[in-house]
Specification:
heterotrimer; A mainly alpha (277); B alpha/beta (302); C mainly alpha (266); A: 277 residues; mainly alpha; 0% strand; C: 266 residues; 9 helices; ABC transporter permease (chain C)
Chain lengths: 277, 302, 266
Amino acid sequence: MTAAQLSQPLRLRRAAPMRTRARFADLYAAEWIKLWSLRSTTLTLGAAVALALYLAGSNSAGGTRLPTGPSGPIDPNHAAFDGPSWIPSMIGVAMIGALALVGEHASGLIRTTLVAIPERRRVVVAKAAVLASVTAATALVAAVGGLLLAFATTPGELHGRSLTNPASLDAIGASVAVLPVCALTGMALGALLRHAAATGFAVCAVLGFGPLLIRPDGNRLATDLANVMPYYAWGRLTSAGRGSSGTMTAGEACLILAAWALASIVVTAVVLDRRDV
Amino acid sequence: MIEARELTKRFGRLTAVNELTFTVRPGQVTGFLGPNGAGKSTTLRMILGLNAPTSGTATIDGRPFRLEGTGLRRVGALLDAGDVHRGRSAQAHVAALARSNGLPRERVTAVLREVGLSEAARRRVGEFSLGMRQRLGLACALLGDPPVLIFDEPINGLDPEGIRWARALFRRLASEGRTVLVSSHMMSEMEHTADHLIVVGGGRLIADEPLSEFAARASRPTVTVRSEDSRRLSAVLTAAGGEVMQLGNGSLTVAKLSTSQIGEVAFSNRIMVYEVAVTSGALEEAFMELTASSVVHRAAES
Amino acid sequence: MSTPIPRNRARFGDLVAAEWIKVRSLRSTYGLMAFGLLFAVVAAWWEGAHVRVAPGAAAQFNPLVYPYNDATWEFITVLAATFGVLAVAGEYSSGLIRATFTAVPDRRRVILAKGVVVSTHMALFGVLTSLASLYVAGAALSGQLSGLSLDRPDILRAAAVSAALPVLGALAGMAIGALIRHPAGAVSTAWGVLLFLPTLLASGTIGLGWATQVMPVAAWEAISRSTYGTPHPNPVPAVGVAWLLMAAWPLLSLAATSVVVTRRDV
């Protein structure tokens, strides 16, 4: 390679507009490329959907253990939105969110990113937007697919065999909300801890172990603690009998999910803004 | 134009950068020189708004870099070739950066071709050699056609052909009127590239002057001698008043004696000499002398 | 030559010493163990302090439930597994593994030495945590329940098996770390295998309910008998089988680690 070859490509030919502020669409697109160019994203999201569908199918096929309530028909939400069956998906998307932050810090890519976009908060918002939209789409596939499977395979009489009945819509909506909330929580934990193994541990502890450890059926304090967890807020909205249905309103559950999402974004932005990278 | 004003960074009790003030001007290659641990990388990170200074300011074209909405059109930087996610392809890495600044897609292909990575663009960065990662980093720096370029130890890991290419690139960028700041811990690297030198040691400014002036600082020209019996030659040269250092493979570096004096001593002691040459590394010498007192990681005397 | 000719095969003791230095020079070792101990102590106090025993009803309470609460010890197990994961995956992610295997090409001996060091640390951690749990719960329960003392054979047995549980967890973690190699992926897999998988299996969703019984925590429950009432909500193996499992898990984990690490390029 000689110096003569250098001159041509150095100049931007078609004078691209010199933006003093990146368009948000461009930031979103950049984070989109980053997310999908990692193999782990496709693998994890694919596994999350596959597992949710498989578990919904086997839950409804093994209909015997579905609580039928005092009397009357079976609620398909019990099969499609069985709590423990969704925990792997919640943790999976949270890991994607966590790695989106940890991966940048661990590899040093964060410096390259922030030289390109010195306004750090906008990077965080773009990252959050990509994570939220991708995981919401994943949740939609898993929830609708799971319900359809439950309709198809549950033996005996069903309570509302339609996607458009209010209970189904509530449950789909709650699921489409909870996976983004988990992904953003993962992102915030990643920003706080930066260390891959520590973040993985924290994600599993907060989103997976928390709901198993603290259940809303103990004393008052335990119930209050359990109710602020995304898992039980989601459980309230899917009404799949996770014991918390009576202890908070649907409105409170929505508020709790929104608060987690917002707090995660704020924490990530503040932490990244203050830190030397 | 890059300006640092009394730039200071402390990490706990360690002062990495101590009241550094300098200006980097456009149209020339400025070498940013100092031994390992002198605070070079920390300074560059503060200029780029990655690290917050404890006190003082750093600006690029008069503005703190953190205030920019997009960076690539203002500054191209290669800080560490490892600052890439290993799981991504080179293509995806550059494409994401370009997109974030609203740069056209052809630009990605153009810079990758420019640095000679077209063939490897679809491979994951984790499979790249250090030299290839350096090239990838240079590609990212060129992406936005920026007026200011900052390179931290860019030559590391490049093959000889790559080094020549990179030097030509830096000179070219400067001749186009850009501000080019290249850091290094090796003087020899600067000899062929820089017009102006900023030398730091122990976080402090040691010199800020044109390359030619800096070279004139070397107080003691030295001579390299290669002989059949360097041990005996070393002894007799020391006896004749020279300061001798063994270089291995039969070579000695001698100070305080001229080439003719050395020849005389060797001849009168019947020692065969294969080569006597004045060391061209006057810059290296000046650099060593200047930074000797500030070297942090001094090699243990053996 | 005055210098002694070095052995061409390192003594196993030297390998252990080398791994010992590696483990002890990481902050995460201390942080993790301190965190686990703190967690166990707080949990034991919490469990003990919230018990109200009606006069004369003490016989209906199983005091082991409080120091050896299953959720607490599941967490301790996963924490220990994380320690094991880091011991292996940390070497892979940093590239240190290449230096290690260049220095000692016999990979199986390296793994064995690592296993010895990890087990020693976790055994120590297990004993400390088990005893701390026991005494803190005992103190919190004072005036309500008594009998939490190592003099009783069932308490001694529960304390001993709880001390051993972290060793199982850590060795399983090493195997997971060797398989997955990416620290975050390996840590979440450890959680999945040791905690969420048993929960899922026990719920009967996948139809492999029997498999719950072979998990480390089930074996621990069978031996420690630290459960609320009978029958136990999750199936546990027979005590004899449980002891076999306590021995089989570490051995199989070490074998798996060794096979995976030996077969794979680094």
